[in-house]
Design brief:
Blueprint lengths: L3 E7 L2 H14 L8 E7 L7 H12 L5 H6 L6 E4 L2 E5 L5 H10 L21 H4 L35 E6 L22 E2 L4 E2 L4 E2 L11
Parallel strand pairs: 1-2, 2-5
Antiparallel strand pairs: 1-3, 3-4, 6-7, 7-8
């Protein structure tokens, strides 16, 4: 069974950089790669996340927030690997992200640029004490023709498109426009996708928007 790497984000440019950092990190994973699942909430500020959880529980009860309570997610962004929240509430650096996931058992190859160059041999002291030899006469420099660098063999990154899943959850509803319990229909529900006629929360096809399945 393929392990799952989840990341919970909102519509913040810094959160998008975190998703790109995870995609780059997956390309350097040794062995079987985990499946990356991106859950993007349609809120612009991560500070609204507590209100989002409160709003879900008010509309649909605790079952709507069970996933976040299971992983102990209280703030965004959050990175979950093998069912354990490793980072939440801040955007980590690339090094911190790799260390956190490597601590949980994810095998990540180091970048080629990070490989240390071998140390240069120390100059013998007797050669260092010799005075610099003065040239007898100026000799014009002859520049050798530039050598064409051989094109480096392009490394084909592993195909990870099939391992990335993006899920968007809509919560764009102002507080003052919350529907009253007596008038709840699919038409004023944030999880109703009108173009597809489906409920994003229950993942069901809605035949009668005036009779929501959550009220049956």
């Amino acid at each position: 069974m393929v392990d799952e790497l989840r990341v919970y984000v909102c519509r913040d440019p810094r959160h998008e950089e975190l998703v790109k950092a995870l995609e780059d990190l997956l390309e350097r994973v040794r062995g079987e790669k985990p499946k990356l699942r991106v859950i993007q909430l349609k809120i612009k500020d991560a500070k609204d996340f507590p209100w989002y959880l409160e709003y879900l529980e008010e509309l649909f009860g605790g079952i709507a927030t069970a996933e976040y309570r299971r992983y102990g997610i209280r703030s965004l962004p959050a990175v979950v690997y093998k069912g354990k929240t490793v980072i939440q509430g801040r955007v980590p650096s690339q090094e911190e992200l790799e260390e956190a996931l490597a601590y949980e058992g994810l095998r990540i190859m180091r970048r080629e640029a990070e490989e240390r160059a071998p140390p240069k041999p120390a100059q013998p002291p007797e050669e260092a004490e010799k005075p610099a030899r003065q040239p007898a006469e100026a000799i014009p420099e002859v520049h050798a023709p530039p050598q064409l660098e051989k094109p480096a063999a392009t490394r084909q990154p592993p195909a990870i498109d099939s391992l990335i899943e993006v899920e968007e959850v809509s919560v764009e509803a102002p507080r003052e426009e919350r529907p009253s319990p007596a008038k709840r229909t699919c038409l004023n529900c944030i999880f109703y996708e009108r173009s597809a006629g489906r409920c994003l929360l229950l993942r069901l096809e809605i035949r009668d928007p005036l009779n929501p399945p959550c009220r049956r």
